[in-house]
What we know:
Elements: E1 7-13, E2 16-36, E3 42-62, E4 73-79, H1 93-105, E5 111-117, H2 128-143, H3 149-159, H4 163-168, E6 172-176, E7 180-183, E8 191-196, H5 203-209, H6 227-235, H7 242-248, H8 251-261, E9 266-269, E10 276-280, H9 283-296, E11 301-306
Parallel strand pairs: 4-5
Antiparallel strand pairs: 1-2, 2-3, 3-5, 3-6, 6-7, 8-10, 8-11, 9-10
Helix pairs in contact: 1-2, 1-3, 5-7
Amino acid sequence: xxxxxxxxxxxxxxxxxxxxxxxxxxxxxxxxxxxxxxxxxxxxxxxxxxxxxxxxxxxxxxxxxxxxxxxxxxxxxxxxxxxxxxxxxxxxxxxxxxxxxxxxxxxxxxxxxxxxxxxxxxxxxxxxxxxxxxxxxxxxxxxxxxxxxxxxxxxxxxxxxxxxxxxxxxxxxxxxxxxxxxxxxxxxxxxxxxxxxxxxxxxxxxxxxxxxxxxxxxxxxxxxxxxxxxxxxxxxxxxxxxxxxxxxxxxxxxxxxxxxxxxxxxxxxxxxxxxxxxxxxxxxxxxxxxxxxxxxxxxxxxxxxxxxxxxxxxxxxxx
Length: 319
Ligand code: C5P
């Protein structure tokens, strides 16, 4: 089931409507590469959680004076600390997501204005663009009141390997190219620090530098899942993209060292990097570690955060 708790309707005035959707940061707690397909894509097994920090997508649907004869009119506006680093509108995955949705589900003239609040560093292994694309799909799904999980999942997979998992934005294991999703119930909440040294890392380049493509898969999660059993389990797991990412961006080594000296229970790179995370026993200890790391490295992006849990919070809008 696709979530609907992320989306909040702000205004609805007949023809015009605005919807916002949170696009949480994605963390690969473990990422095992287990093979490669003939099309070059890799077979993965990854345990993923999502955080209470992220981007925000707001979509305004107006009456359609600006629609193009050959398709919808989609305008993008970027804001936030990383708003200026986004590609040209037509190359932006948010634009592609909105276009794919309108082509699949809508007829007639449409005019969408999409505001992207870009809080997460781009090309950084925490899902930013994929999370934004998924949030865009959830927002337009809500705007136009469509419910077709199968077609949405297909659109998401077509946009990128990480977009299907970002449609769910909760603890899960993804397999295949990333599109086979197993949702995890009752996953422990984690207190984390995310650290990015300010270098962009290209995902295709990292996969391209990966030496061993046939690595052992994940083992089953502990039967009784607590923060302790999870951390012990994670210590036996890997991010197989860490070695090629480190070869491309040696700064990742400094980030992992900074996390090590902050007493993280576990430290690891997320996705294809360069963002790394540390897991801490409490949010207070995560905040202290974040403070210490940013004092030592004022140029780095450093955030303390919690993973999203879905007990009572499930109905909350936004983070
Ligand atoms: O699907 P997406 O565009 O996000 O993937 C970016 C790049 O990452 C792909 O072009 C491919 O080089 C690599 N990739 C891969 N195997 C995956 C996912 C991504 O090789 N399962």
